[in-house]
Amino acid sequence: MVKRKVSKPKKKQTKVKEELRDPLQEVAVKIVIYRQEVSASFLQRNLKIGFARASRLIDEMEEDKIIGPARGAKPRKVLVKKKAKKKVVKKAKVVKEKKGKGPSVRMLVVFTKVLESMGKVSIGQAMRDQGYPVSTANNPQQLTRSKGWQKMLQEAFPHDMVLKYHHVLANSFKLGHSVFPLGIKDEDIVTLLDSTNCTVVKIQYGEQAKHVWFWSPDNMARDRVLEKINKMKGVYAPQKFQMVDPNEDMSDDELDAEEEKLNKEIAEFEKEEAKAVDKKKPKAKKKANSA
């Protein structure tokens, strides 16, 4: 009897392509290694994301041998200890950082949230969500001027890419529509629109007018995108405020007289306040004299 060789089924390739990896993977790897724990709910709480996205991040970390496979009800094991952090970070393509100079985990999360929201979430709001002090979140310049933030900006918006955006956006157009009388020639319509940097796409003849569709420069879109990039790159000069002192030209004698006048006004105001308080106090009843 001839034995047939049974070929084993090939395992499906589940390797995630680099270009399809989640942009939050670098942040998730750092948090998991630092805290030495991982679960979908853990990533949801720390990264403020949904369950599906947290599950995808876990799959990517399992593929990179950062965490172990699922063990039923038991939590997954973090295969990488804090001492081996640098090796795994390199394997997971997380940017190496020098202590004190590179972006922190919280800073990475804030940066990613602001970019993904496309302007819907402010830097200050993202900082508050990640537990930054209120005083720091109210002044996000303390974060955006740091070396770590500038480093992430340069990686996200390299100079060459910004130049390409400038070139593309400088040539962006939108479709416009206008109506012309039937008596105007098509050549005149084309010449008129061409003088305003518009290109005629189609002319449709109606019963009472001509409907013309044309490409026109999308100036608002160009300006909005370029302004956002330039602001994040710090191209614009900081706003300047001029402090005006109304007493700058006064002499010492005039300043002394002004100070004395103010002191008198304050004293009179305090007297009036004291009188008003006395009037509100209930008057004590006089005790009847005993016969």
How far apart the termini lie comes to 140 Å
Number of helices: 13
Under CATH, the topology of one domain can be stated as: Arc Repressor Mutant, subunit A
Approximately what portion of the residues adopt beta-strand conformation?
A: 5-15%
| Biggest sheet layout | 3 strands, antiparallel
The appropriate CATH architecture of one domain is: Orthogonal Bundle
What class would the helix/strand composition place it in?
Answer: mainly alpha
- Return residue spans where pLDDT drops below 50 for at least 5 consecutive residues: 84-99
* Proportion in helices: 40-55%
* Overall pLDDT score: 76
**Number of E-state strands:** 3
CATH top level class name of one domain? Mainly Alpha
What would you give as the CATH superfamily of one domain?
Answer: Winged helix-like DNA-binding domain superfamily/Winged helix DNA-binding domain
Gross geometry: flat
Radius of gyration based on Cα positions? 35 Å
Strand neighbour order, sheet with most strands: 1-3-2
Order of helices and strands: HHHHHHHHHHEHEEHH
How is this fold's topology laid out?
Layout: H1 25-35, H2 40-47, H3 51-63, H4 85-91, H5 105-116, H6 123-129, H7 134-137, H8 141-144, H9 147-156, H10 159-169, E1 173-181, H11 186-194, E2 199-205, E3 209-217, H12 219-233, H13 252-280
Antiparallel strand pairs: 1-3, 2-3
Helix pairs in contact: 2-3, 5-6, 10-12
Q: How does this structure look, described?
A:
The protein is mainly α. Among the domains are: 16-96, Winged helix-like DNA-binding domain superfamily/Winged helix DNA-binding domain (Arc Repressor Mutant, subunit A); 100-156, no CATH class; 173-217. It has 13 helices and three strands. It has helices at 25-35, 40-47, 51-63, 85-91, 105-116, 123-129, 134-137, 141-144, 147-156, 159-169, 186-194, 219-233, 252-280; strands spanning 173-181, 199-205, 209-217. It has a three-stranded antiparallel beta sheet, covered by helices on one side. A hairpin with a 3-residue loop joins strand 2 and strand 3 (209-217). The model is unreliable at 84-99 (pLDDT under 50).
